[in-house]
Amino acid sequence: MSSQNNLFPDSAFFLKTKTPTETIRDQLQFDNLPEVEKSVLHFKKKWLATPYAKQLAAIISRVIEDRKGDPISNVVCLGMSGDGVNREVQQLVVFSQIAAHLATANPDLLNNIVYQDPILDFRNFEWRWMVENHGCKVVKTPVAFKEVRKNTFVFSPYVRPDVLLLGLEDQPVDQLTLFVGNDVRFWIDGKGKSFSVRPVLAFFGLLWKLEWKLTFDRWGRMGTNYGT
Question: What is the extent of the structural domain holding 91?
Answer without folding.
Answer: 11-216
